[in-house]
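Data availability (excerpt). All sequences and predicted C-alpha cell strings are deposited with the supplementary files. A representative entry, Glutamate dehydrogenase, is shown inline so that the format can be inspected without opening the archive.
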Amino acid sequence: MSEHTNAFTMAQKQFDRVADLLGLDQQVREILRFPLREYHLRLPVQMDDGSIRVFQGYRVQHNDARGPAKGGIRFHPGETADTVRALAMWMTWKCAVADIPLGGGKGGIVVDPATLSMDEKERLCRAYVRSIWRNIGPRQDVPAPDVGTNAQMMGWMMDEYSTITGQYTPGVITGKPVGGGGSLGRREATGYGVIYTVRETMKHLKIDPTKTTAAIQGFGNVAQFAAEGFIKQLGGKVICVSYWDREDRASYTVCKDDGIDLDFLVSITDQYGSINKDQAVSAGYTIEAGDEWIAKEVDVLIPAALEGQVNGESVKKIHSRVKILAEGANGPTTPEADEVLKARGIFVIPDFLCNAGGVTTSYFEGVQNDMNFYWTKTEVLEKLDDKMTQAYASVYDMSKAQDVYMRDAAYMVAIDKVVKAMELRGWL
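C-alpha cell line:
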C-alpha cells in the first residue's frame, strides 16, 4: 500500500495537523500518535475437512485515558496491523467527540468470512477470544462487530469469554443478538446516526431535505440504514448504492434515477451486502462501474464502505451539485481529497462524528448489561438522537468559533477531552 493510502499514516497526518493548531506539547503527541498497546495473534483453527489453518489476528488499544478501550473486530482479507492501528486511533477520537466514557481500540483477523462455513466461523471467533481474553473485559477493552462480523459472532465471543472466566459477562462484547444481552436499536444505530448529522447539517445550510438526492457507497448494515433514514426520516431520494460482488470479485453501482426501492434491494441482497445483479436489472435498475457512485449529480454523498475511497483521484469526479459529504465509513477521505473538498466548499461531516451512532449505542448496550435492565427501541433511538445532536453541535460550534474545517474542529473537540483526561489521571 502506498503511503498516501496507508490508513495509519493518514490518521497520524490528520492528528499532526490538529496538534499543530492546538500547539500540543511533544510529550503529548508522543503518547497520542501511537497505540498504548497492541497484540498480534496467531490463531490455529480446525477446518471442516480436519486440516488446521492458522489465521493472523490483531487487537490494538490506542488510548484508554477516558475509559475502557472500545472498538470493533473486522474479518477482512485485506486487514493489516496499520489499518487496525488507524481504526483504533479513530475510535479514541470518536468516543471523545460523542462524549462517552470510553477509549479507542480495534481488532481484526485476516480472512474473507464468506469463505468459511458457519462452524468454521464459530471456531475462529472462539480461538480469537481464547488468545486475547486476559486483555479484554468490561473494564478493560470491549470489542464489537465491524466489517465481516455480526451479532451472532459476538454472541459466540461473549459465550467463550464467559466460559473461560466462569461467570456470565455480557458486557465484554457489544453488538450481541437481542435476547443474548444485545440492545434494541443497535443494528440501525450507525446508519441512523449518519442521517441525524445530515439532518443537522441541512438545517445549518437551509436545505429542504425532501428535495434532496443522495448516492451511497456500500450496501452493508451502515449503508442500508443510512438509506432508510435518508428516505423515510428526511424524505429524500437515494438514486444509487454500490456494492462488492463476491462472485465477480468486483464492485458495481446500482442506479435508479427516480430513487431506489430500498425494501426491494434489501430483499435481493445477501448477508455480505452483495446485490443480485440479474434481479436488479429485471426490475429496471442500471448497473454501472463500482466507482460511479461518486460522480452522480446528487446533493449528498455518503461513503459507507472502506477507508481511502475518496482520494486524490476519485475526488475529481465529484459533481458540482454536491453540497454535503457524510462519512459513514471510517477514514474514507484522504488528506489530499480533503484539500479539494475544502477548496470546493463541500460541507464534510467527518467520520468519527458522522458514524459515532454505532459506538454510542454500544455504550448504551454496556450500560444496560451493567444494570441488567433493558430499554425499548424507542428509548434507545431517542437517547442516540440526543447524543448525536449534542456531539454535532459541539463540533459545529468549534468549527465556527475557530473558523476551521469540520474535520479539524472534530479533532479539536476530541483531542482536548482526551488530553484533559490524561492530565487528570496524572499521565502528563
